Amino acid sequence: MSSSPQTHITVDEEIPLNTVAGSGEVEDKNNTCTEVITIMGQGAASCCNDRYHRKLAICSIICGISCIGIKALINSVKAEREPNQAAAEKFSQRSKKFGIISITVWISLLVLTPMLMVLISYLLTLID
User: Fold this and answer.
1) Phi, psi (deg, nearest 5) at residue 39
2) Please, what is the Cα angle at 20 between 15 and 21, to 5 degrees?
3) Cβ partners under 8 Å of residue 7, min gap 6
4) What is the signed CA dihedral for 92, 97, 102, 107, rounded to 10 degrees?
5) Do 99 and 59 touch, CB atoms closer than 8 A?
6) By mean pLDDT, which of 26-35, 44-53, 96-105 is the weakest?
7) 76 with 60: CB under 8 angstroms?
8) What's the pLDDT at 52?
9) Residue 124 CB-density burial (10 A; 0-12 exposed, 13-18 middle, 19+ buried)
10) 76 near 91, Cβ under 8 Å?
11) How far apart are CA 113 and CA 80, in angstroms?
């Protein structure tokens, strides 16, 4: 246990929450406010604002061929830490490319493996 004193903070003032333009509430024609659902403060198109394609790289590790996804994540980190803008853009594009390739190859394997098994089974029955 630590011997440091505990800090207690009390707040006596209540602050009302007002609707601010662009705060996530949409006003209908009937003057009723409906709340727009956002996840962790980000809108639905937040993945498009990812300059270095970090989210795509992480998804490609989880939902794709992880070896290629790790390469995408490495390029994403290099793009973020690169001071030269042209080189950072190059690393970012590589990260996007490897992320898409990783997910595409995994989905292709998931689809083609059963199809090849059916084809081989069909060919073996034709031989008999």
Assistant:
1) -105, 120
2) 175
3) none
4) 130
5) yes
6) 26-35
7) no
8) 83
9) exposed
10) yes
11) 37
Rounded Cα distance, 67 and 62, in Å: 10
Local structure of 20: helix, strand or coil:
coil
DSSP, collapsed to helix, strand or coil, labels residue 13 as coil
Residue 93 half-sphere exposure toward CB, CA atoms < 13 A: 6
Q: Report residue 9 as tokens.
A: 């903070």
pTM score, two decimals?
0.59
Burial 47-63 (b: 16+ CB within 10 A, else e): eeeeebbbebbebbbee
Q: How many CB atoms lie within 10 A of CB 72?
A: 28
pLDDT of residue 128: 82
